[in-house]
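Single Protein Entry

Contents — chain, fold
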Amino acid sequence: MINKVLCIILLFLFIIIIYKIINKNNTLENFASDKWTTNKDKLEAESQSLNDTQKNEVKNMITSISKSELKSLISSQSPLLVGPTGQQGIQGPAGTKLIASGRLINKSGSYDSTIDQKSNNYFIPQFVVTRTQGTNPTSSLAFIDNISPFGSFQNWQLDINNNIINRYDNTCLTMDNSASKLYMSTCVEDSPSQKWTWDNTNRIISTSASSNTNLKCIGLTKPEVNILTTNIPNCKGNECLSNSARKYLIVKDCDINNINEDELWAFI
C-alpha cells in the first residue's frame, strides 16, 4: 500500500518536472523571439549619425523655435523689463516747417544759353542765387553767380511764415522801399518787406506790395557792372575781387496774365 502511494507521488512529481521543463523552453523561445531582439541592419541604420543636410535641418528647426520662443518671452515679459522713468531732459529748439529749400534757380539766368536745349546738360544749372556778406540795403545784395557745391550762402529756405532765409547766417531776403534791388537783412517777425509767396506759376510774389490787379514779383536785372557790394561770404584775397557783370534780384511789376522767363524760379 505504501509502495503504491509512493509510486503515485513520484509519478506526480515527475509530471510536474516535465511541465516545468516544457515551460522553461517556451520562455527562452519567447525571449529570443522578434519581440525582444532587433534586426542587425535595422539596428545599424538606427545607430548611424546624422548627415550634414539633416544636421542643418535640425539646427534651423532649433533656431526657428528659439527665435519664436524669445519673441514670445519678450512680448509677455516686456512690462517687467521697463525701469523707472528718468529725469526729463532739456527741451530742444522748435523745428521750422519749410515749403521749399535748396538752391534757388531762375529760368533765364541759371542756364548757359550756348548749350543746346535738347542736351542733357541743359538741365544742369550753371548759375544760382548767391549773396554778399552783411545786412546793408546798398551792399548786401543778392544776385546770380556760379554754383558753389559747398557754399551755405547759396542755400535758401522758404518757410511757412513766408520768409526766404539764407542758411549762411539765417538772414532774410528783403525788399528795399527806396530801391528795386533785394538785399539781405536780419529777419524781423511780421516785416512786410520780407514776406513772399511762391505761387503755382513758379513766380515769387511779394505778399505785402501786391494787389489783385498789380503783382510785385522777383525778377532779374540785365547784367550790371560797378555795383557797390560787399564781399562774398568766406572769400579770401583775390577771390573777393570780381569785375564781371552780374544779374541782380529785383522786385518788378509783373503782368498777371503774361509771365517772363526771368520771373520763373525753382528750389533744387
